[in-house]
Amino acid sequence: MSTLPAPRTPDPMDAPAVRWGILAPGWIANLFCTALRQGTRQEIAAIGSRSYDRAKAFADEFDAVAAYGSYEELVNDPQVDIVYVASPHSEHHHQARLALEAGKAVLVEKAFTRNAAEARDLVDLARSKNLLLIEAMWARFLPHYDVIRQVVENGLIGDITTVYADHDQPLYPNGPERLSNPALAGGALLDLGVYPISFAEFVLGQFTSITAVGTLTDLGVDSQQTVVVTNAAGAQGVLHSSMLARSATTASVCGTAGRLDIGGPFYEPNWIKMYDRDDQLVGQHEKVADIGHGGLRYQAAEAARCLTEGRTESAVFPLDATLRVMEAMDNVRAQLGVRYPGE
Questions:
Q1: Same domain, yes or no, for 133 and 205?
Q2: pLDDT in tens, 174-230
Q3: 187 lies in a domain?
Q4: Do residues 102 and 76 touch, judged by C-beta distance below 8 A?
Q5: Is residue 3 part of a domain?
Q6: Does the annotation mark 56 as catalytic?
Q7: Which pTM does this prediction carry?
Q8: HSE of 140 in the Cβ direction (CA atoms, 13 Å)?
């Protein structure tokens, strides 16, 4: 059996150390900081929360030097090189803008913002100030995504015809409020659907058509949706997300000469199998040692490299790709009839 191309992703331990400010110390921030501590040389310099006590407890847990009871204090700390925005989707635009206006580089949790207009505002501001800005779609920075990139770019499975990806988790109605509340930009799409949509954009590039069907909750956010996309070459993506039940969360990339199957969850460090047209296994990429969210260290390492090298965006996941993903999700929400307060 042949092997797939080796990932070219640098070891996160080799990334230069920069000083991180963590804005909003919640669940994902805890996972992010744990990944930094266990798999990088990055420094967790400061924690910012609306509650000083919460910031201090989080800072103590991760040995951060400073704790602040406001986001304004965090972004203005001269000892912070880059701010990681880890709040709910509804707050990303305001808080990332706060950090950019303070002259800080920013890594913003996915989904980048509520909508494309907010995303374009942040991108325009970062570019005007020559500041680094990256969406923390951690999957795009993982080693197995680089394997997929090489397979697609080198035509190892022929011309791409179809992408399949699903991401279903049982998070409603008994899950976190941020998923059910329209004011917090809730729903399956921005939290779960962003993964298959971003994966399809990664493989197919710009979408030329988007068709969506879905179901809404009684509060008006989407509980699930199926999205079909096409690109200029006629390749299609069939993408599903739901917060009502659990799926295998796998992905496949099909081409005229073979296909790739990605193990679930496809957006976490995982294995890849390549098959030829006769469905014979011809290559395999083994899952790397990272378990689950330990893979968050790769996006942090990329941000640290970009910042140290004076780059204002990541070539691995450019801002224009983030904008395309946000525009696609706007299109899906428009078809489903989902609007957030204030839009």
A1: no
A2: 999 999 999 999 999 999 999 999 999 999 999 999 999 999 999 999 999 999 999
A3: yes
A4: yes
A5: no
A6: no
A7: 0.97
A8: 29
